[in-house]
Amino acid sequence: EHALPVTTPTAEVKSKRTTSETTSPPGVFPSDYPPRKPPSQGEAPSEHRNSVQLVAKWAARPLDLLQALNEHKPHVVHFSGHGSDKDELVFQADDGSTKLVSKEAIVTTMSTAADNIRVVMLNACFSQSQARAVTKHIDIAIGMNAAIGDEAARVFAAKFYSAVGFGRSVQQAFNQGRAALMLEGISGADTVEIFAKDGTDPNNIILVRPPT
Q: What is the DSSP string of 2-68?
């Protein structure tokens, strides 16, 4: 399924609200290629995880994305699902069938909430082009330059958010996600890519800061 994460600030820690969109119509994908689930906070325990709020939207339709952006005002948007080699993301239609959403639609949608979104993770196959385009409006985006296995997608995302919860920068969290794949001997470390808006350094983007 496809999902978006959200993080919310608390009194003690500057954190980020993450919204997660997941979409997976029944019967669309082969049984050996099941829909992905977004990372849970339980999979990635970290020092300040209680200051991060995750809001998941399962079996998301395209307009559910706009609703989630307006309702939760996320700092991080995480799409966990499937992508096509034509720069499309797979959402669910009203009748439960597959609905392909273009790169232009995704980029335009993210631009409408650029005042609060800091990071977009497109944890889907062939999402490199969308991620790069999103950084015209958003500070940081992460995408995949090829197909990626379910285990690799899950492990990378879990360790990325764990590092974020420990107060690491987005670049450090990205590096740790890749390192986790290497440590586990899971292919995909070269598939994930990070992009930044012109003038933005991922090393300087820290989503969760402990109190000073």
A: --EEEE---SSSB--EEEEE----TTSS-TTSPPP-PPPGGGS--TTGGG-EEEEE-S--HHHHHHH
